[in-house]
Write a structure and sequence with these properties.
469 residues; alpha/beta; Rossmann fold; Ribosomal Protein S5, domain 2; 3 domains; 9-stranded mixed beta sheet; 7-stranded mixed beta sheet; 11 helices; 23 strands; 25% strand; binds thymidine-5'-diphosphate; binds magnesium ion
Length: 469
């Protein structure tokens, strides 16, 4: 009988401490540390094993026979794209996201799509009653799919039930934070419970070859353990993003042991559930504000897929001592950098102006290639000079004011041409890749200053002098 020991574990990141403290030093969150019984924690001895004695196993060479992991297409191509071509047998996926973003909706749709292909698929909800899940399925017109439902929270009961029948291909657990196991003594939702439950389900998946999808709520208050505590244990982590004001939802792979992590899946939340968006560029450009200053179309790449999106900027005289710089959908630091380059190398005076930058449609861009589009939008707004509405922009801006090349220029240009754009402002070095798109007029620049001068010359803002000498 081991001695009961108490430890204090951060419910956000899982860091353990010897005593309680207000702030977690590992993740910087406040009030997330809670007392837990560590004798039952993950890593405690397995049943019936004496300490220090192990079973020897054979080690293998790096070169050996490999088998391509067999994949199971779910019938929802946007979902399969993010997972790298479908669910891998025996793999465990974690789908994280804010409450209400649509995780349950997405996964009941995935479970139904798979069931329609004749595979056994099981949906276990720890949050909703069976009747509620049915009601949702009815709204989504999924009642004909043979998904097996249960409202259950005990991991032991779930595994016992699943082991009894035919092997399921897919098991959705909604959500991992509501699950509890007898192995751990702490209450459901704590780090120990979430980890132990996840571990039991992972063990089941590896043993049987079934795919397990865990839903994890991202929590800010730290009252229940966040999905981060199981991220390292699962094979893939997908995050489902979007904001309440927009209908677009983006599924993004954060970690994937069996595929790339840069692919995104785009969905639209409709009254009839999530609809796949096969051509996101058209969607993100559908409500463009043509002919007004401060907007530029960025030709981006998400994974292997080109994505055109509008970048909007507003530059307005400030009434504050320190002007505001606000950005939605892009990196604040990159905005500061672009502003600094515009001031230092292009003669643009932004110190007396508030700057707002927004990526239309609620998309979040991570590429440095958006620098050029952001800079063009900023200068366009400042100079009150609308940019040509049939032009796209891409290129990375260096601190010296040079426009640097970015990967996959040809794919970006192809998408622009396909969607009817006629001009492209690109880095000089990408010019060679433009030969495939003869219908595009290419404006290749080496420096940001040249582009800025070009935009400012067409501006109508004759108020205070905006450009320095
Ligand atoms: P849900 O899948 O329950 O979110 P999560 O599991 O991530 O907490 O989705 C909840 C939201 O989705 C809810 O605010 C309503 C909206 N919704 C629709 O707009 N259309 C639909 O067909 C469904 C089922 C939900
Ligand atoms: Mg839910």
């Amino acid at each position: 009988m081991s001695k009961r020991t108490l430890s204090f574990v951060c419910q956000n990141c899982g860091a353990a401490y010897g005593k309680w403290q207000g702030k977690c030093e590992a993740c910087g969150e406040w009030n997330t540390i809670a007392e837990e019984d560590s004798t039952s924690a993950v890593g405690a001895r397995g049943p019936g094993k004496a300490p220090g004695k192990g079973r020897p196993f054979a080690l293998e060479a790096l070169s050996g026979e490999t088998h391509e992991a067999p994949r199971l297409a779910t019938g929802i191509p946007e979902f399969d794209r993010v997972t790298g071509g479908g669910l891998v047998r025996g793999s465990v996926l974690l789908v994280g996201g804010d409450p209400g973003i649509g995780k349950s909706t997405l996964l009941i749709q995935v479970a139904a799509a798979l069931a329609r292909t004749g595979q056994r698929s099981v949906y276990i909800s720890g949050e909703e009653a069976v009747a509620q899940v049915r009601l949702r399925a009815e709204r989504l017109a999924l009642l004909d799919a043979k998904v097996e439902l249960a409202s259950e929270t005990s991991v032991e009961d779930i595994i016992a039930t699943l082991s009894a029948g035919k092997l399921p291909r897919l098991i959705v657990i909604d959500s991992i934070q509501t699950m509890w196991t007898d192995v751990a003594e702490s209450s459901p939702g704590t780090v120990t419970q979430v980890r132990s439950s996840a571990q039991a389900l992972i063990r089941y998946a590896k043993k049987t070859g079934a795919c397990v999808v865990l839903v994890g709520h991202v929590t800010k208050d730290g009252q229940i353990a966040g999905p981060r505590v199981v991220e390292h244990m699962v094979d893939a982590v997908l995050s489902f993003e979007g904001d309440g004001a927009h209908q677009f939802r983006i599924l993004r792979a954060v970690k994937n042991r069996f595929g790339p992590t840069d692919e995104i899946g785009v969905f639209e939340m409709t009254g009839l559930g999530l609809r796949e968006v096969a051509n996101p560029s058209e969607l993100f450009l559908s409500e463009r504000d043509l002919g007004s200053p401060g907007t530029a179309v960025f030709a981006g790449i998400e994974g292997t897929r080109p994505l055109l999106v509008e970048i909007q900027a507003l530059v307005a005289p400030t009434s504050l001592g320190t002007p505001r710089r606000a950005v939605v959908g892009w990196d604040q630091n990159r905005l500061s950098m672009v502003i600094a380059v515009l001031e230092a190398h292009c003669g643009v005076r932004l110190a007396g102006h508030d700057v707002y930058l927004n990526v239309a449609g609620g998309l979040r861009i991570q590429e440095p290639a958006a620098d050029l589009a952001a800079a063009a939008a900023l200068v366009s707004s400042l100079a009150n000079a609308p940019l040509p509405s049939d032009a796209v922009y891409f290129g990375e801006v260096s601190l010296s004011g040079a426009i640097r090349p970015v990967p996959q220029s040809a794919a970006r240009l192809k998408e622009a041409s396909k969607l009817g754009f006629a001009r492209a402002f690109i880095p000089e070095s990408a010019k060679a890749e433009a030969s495939g798109e003869p219908q595009l007029t290419i404006s290749a620049n080496n420096t940001l200053a040249a582009l800025v001068a070009d935009i400012a010359a067409r501006g109508t803002n004759r108020g205070p002098r905006l450009l320095k000498e």
